[in-house]
Predict the structure.
Amino acid sequence: MKKNFEDSIDLDIYKNDSQEAKDFEIKSSTTVFVNGEGVPLDVALSNEKMNAYLKGRM
């Protein structure tokens, strides 16, 4: 995603037990947030759906 959106997004990856993740409800091992809002798992796991999701929020 970072390659597709270059400077349009800021990507951070944290472990579920990190300080940065403590304020979020983590429901699975793959949890993606965009602007503090959870992304549906089927979207997060699909390049095509995630591209469309991010384009719709720009």
